Amino acid sequence: MKKILILLCMFLLSCVAFMSSTFAEESVSYPRGKNYLNLQNFRYHNDRTDLGDTFEHIRVKSFVWYTLVLDYEFIGQHAGYPEYIKVLIEEGFGDDFYYEYMTDDPYNGRVYVEFMPVLDWIRLHEIPVDNTRNYDAILYEGLYTDFFGYEPYICETEILEYGGTLPIDYDHQLTTEQIKSFIIAKDPYGGSLEYVVETDDYSSSLKTPGSYEMVFVSTFNRISKKYFLDIRVFDLTSPIITLSGDIQVQLSEKLTIDEIKQLISVTDNVDEISPSDLVVIQDTYSSATTVGHYSITVEATDLSGNISSLVVPIQLVDLVGPTISGPFSIFLYTTDPALTNQQILNRFNVYDDVDGSNVSFDIITNNYNQQTSPGIYQMALRAGDTQYNFTYKNIEIHVIENRGPIFIEDETIIQASSAENMTDQDIIDWFKNLTMSSGLTVSQVSVLYNEYEGNEKLGGSYYVYLNYELDGQIQTSRIRIDVKEEKIEPNYLLIGTIGGSVSLGFLTFFIIKKKKI
């Protein structure tokens, strides 16, 4: 900014110097001012008539009204009989001569005559004049009602209009008084003159960049001259682009460039500029597909052509953890095998919007631990992505009791393989052992009848009748064998007995459980 102000000051100084230059109108045969009557071209005849004339022709505009005005003091003694004052007008070079009587204006002390030449050149003859020091005589375009006052004839070298250009920085506006201080009006002898502001487009404007005109007028010796000042307001300040904070964008929800622009602020000292007006001149962000640091460079240009730019850093981040989809509760019966930790994790699907399936999934709280007792057990699951974003899910493991009563067998129940068939001898041996465990001694044991034989694989109740000797007496007993078909592994054979006396014998039963085919 300091460098800009220095350049502006140098420009102002050069323009102030330029303001001393003049705007010279192209020289034509017409007078520089309004007065066509050049007294250098006037001949005064000091004779009885006290008349004068122009010895050289005056160039005029054909078919345009002209008025000759003479002050009473200029015409001298002729003012005593104004009704007789007339002027001889010659048009062309002797082509036409005619008299025009002058009209008296006693209130203002002057006489005048109005005429319209049809040729481009005229001479004036028999102009009333007195050899005095009054030079108030004028010939001008227009009628008497347009009379503006006497003005001396202005020579061709006289400068009537001046002009210059004053540059102003929009951010450092000048007041009217400050601008006037750049202009000085002086008389031909070096004395200072007052001047007024005739027109001022600058002070009444908004002073936005552009050109404005101020016209100053100063008068000396009844000659008014103008100074035309072209004020040019310049915008030298570039737009200001700011960023309120770092821009972080979720990789899975990337913002568009237009959306990124709306996160940037841009202002200008003069023009209305919005983020939409920003132009991207560099971009590593749009094509980015992974987490990381990227940037775009934006540029703003105001209507005066001032340009500014800003590098906008953008960080693509992954701030969202994986999603865990699956049940909130898992139900098990006590008869079901306990679930392993991995079996529990396998019941869930885990996915990350950035890393996909490249995630971790584990149990961080485990109150279940393969419990088989009825109850509700809390577990906490955790999933994490490569950016260490974690998602948590709490679940419950419900272990439900679904078993009925349980009977406890006596130690007399023996087990045998379901694939093993008990022969008669097996039953006899078992019966002997059973009676011995009861403190009895039996002998001569034999199988009278065996319903079980041949029905080992069929469910039902079968009896085996035994004959034996106990304490010297022959006894008879029967054994009931219940064959039940059940889905159970491993297969086993239960043989139960119930001691009882049947004809002084025992009532015994076997329970055989076989795998259902």
UniProtKB/TrEMBL annotation:
Residues 1-24 form the signal peptide. It comes from the Bacteria. Keywords: Membrane, Signal, Transmembrane, Transmembrane helix. The chain crosses the membrane at residues 492-512. It comes from Peloplasma aerotolerans. This is HYR domain-containing protein. InterPro entries: Ig-like_fold (IPR013783).
